[in-house]
């Protein structure tokens, strides 16, 4: 079984755990969600799910996303400058860089930042439990040097 199939199956189980019937439409949405690595919003997920099954409605997309989020199998990101964006929750920890002009989301991970955050929490007498870091960026012209 591929990672994508495994992810889709986890999402199916999450729906079942919440007593939500796995319809053809929902199955199309799960497939699309499991495949997407680019943090799509609900409209984009709707568009992609419709490419698999025309009869998927936006209401189904919203309702299903809510259930999946409640069950902890997807994460909802409220990045500035747009609607909520979604991604599978089984990804290894990463932070996000958001292109303020295009809305593109780039994933990154920095051990330096991870350590620094833990240190800051410790300095204040805390143990770091979890964090979210969002960098809002504009692309530099040229090759970035
Ligand atoms: Zn991400």
- Overall pLDDT confidence: 93
Distance from N terminus to C terminus (CA atoms, Å) equals 42 Å
Report the radius of gyration as a whole number of Å.
18 Å
Count the beta strands: 5
The CATH homologous superfamily of the largest domain is called Winged helix-like DNA-binding domain superfamily/Winged helix DNA-binding domain
The number of helical elements comes to: 5
Helix content class = 40-55%
- What is the class of the largest domain in the CATH system? Mainly Alpha
What name does CATH use for the topology of the largest domain?
Arc Repressor Mutant, subunit A
* Percentage of residues in DSSP E strands: 5-15%
Protein name: Ferric uptake regulation protein
Binding site for Fe cation: 93, 95, 114, 131
Subcellular location: Cytoplasm
InterPro entries: FUR, Fur_C, WH-like_DNA-bd_sf, WH_DNA-bd_sf
What does this structure look like?
This protein is of the alpha+beta class. The chain has two domains: 3-88, Winged helix-like DNA-binding domain superfamily/Winged helix DNA-binding domain (Arc Repressor Mutant, subunit A, Orthogonal Bundle), CATH 1.10.10.10; 95-137, Dna Ligase, domain 1 (2-Layer Sandwich), CATH 3.30.1490.190. The protein contains five helices and five strands. The protein has helices at 3-17, 24-35, 42-52, 58-70, 111-123, and strands spanning 74-77, 85-88, 95-99, 105-108, 134-137. It has a three-stranded mixed sheet with strand order 4-3-5, with no helix packed on it. Strands 1-2 form a two-stranded antiparallel sheet. A hairpin with a 7-residue loop joins strand 1 and strand 2 (85-88). Helix 1 packs across helix 2. The protein is globular. The mean pLDDT is 93. The structure holds zinc ion (ZN). The site of zinc ion has 5 residues, from loops. One of its GO terms (cellular component) is cytosol. Pfam families: FUR (PF01475). One of its GO terms (biological process) is regulation of secondary metabolite biosynthetic process. Homodimer.
């Amino acid at each position: 079984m591929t990672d994508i199939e495994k992810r889709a199956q986890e999402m199916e189980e999450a729906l079942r755990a919440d007593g939500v019937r796995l319809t053809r439409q929902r199955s199309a949405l799960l497939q699309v969600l499991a495949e997407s690595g680019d943090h799509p919003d609900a409209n984009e997920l709707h568009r992609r799910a419709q490419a698999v099954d025309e009869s998927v409605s936006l209401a189904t997309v919203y309702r299903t996303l809510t259930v999946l989020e409640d069950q902890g199998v997807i994460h909802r990101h409220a990045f500035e400058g747009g609607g909520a964006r979604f991604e599978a929750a089984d990804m290894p920890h990463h932070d996000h860089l958001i292109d303020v002009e295009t809305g593109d989301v780039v994933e990154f991970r920095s051990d330096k930042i991870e350590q620094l955050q833990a240190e800051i929490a410790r300095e204040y007498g805390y143990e770091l439990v979890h964090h979210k870091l969002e960098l809002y960026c504009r692309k530099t012209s040229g090759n970035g040097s």
